[in-house]
Amino acid sequence: MELREIQAMIKEKYYHYDVKSGALFLLAVLFEEVGELAEAVRKGDTKAVNEELVDVLFMLLSIANLFNVELENRLVEKYIKNDPSKKWDLP
Q: Where in the sequence is the domain holding 54, given as residue range(s)?
């Protein structure tokens, strides 16, 4: 299954909730999930990292659907076809 298919299924199942909730609420939930991911990473809890990554991805897809952003093509274009790592400030 491809990311665009997953995104479409999430939109079909949850978009009506996302519209009612609104962008700022979804963003707040995303921040909450990222915080939970950070805690799982800090603790080195692989099982919790797995769960929180899924929650973060779900929220990203929900926000993308709310703004009609098709993530798969943009992700491939930006990070596979191009190489933004040249701009990263890494040692």
A: 22-82
- Give the whole-angstrom CA distance, residue 58 versus residue 20: 17
CA atoms within 13 A on the CB side of 4: 8
Specify if 15 maps to a domain: no
Number of structural domains in the chain = 1
17 domain-assigned: no
The predicted-structure confidence for 11-49, as pLDDT tens digits, reads as follows 999 999 999 999 999 999 999 999 999 999 999 999 999
Cα atoms in the 13 Å half-sphere on the side-chain side of 16: 2
Q: How far apart are CA 40 and CA 46, in angstroms?
A: 7
Instruction: Write down the pLDDT at residue 85.
Output: 83
CATH (domain of 74): 1.10.287.1080
pTM of this prediction? 0.88
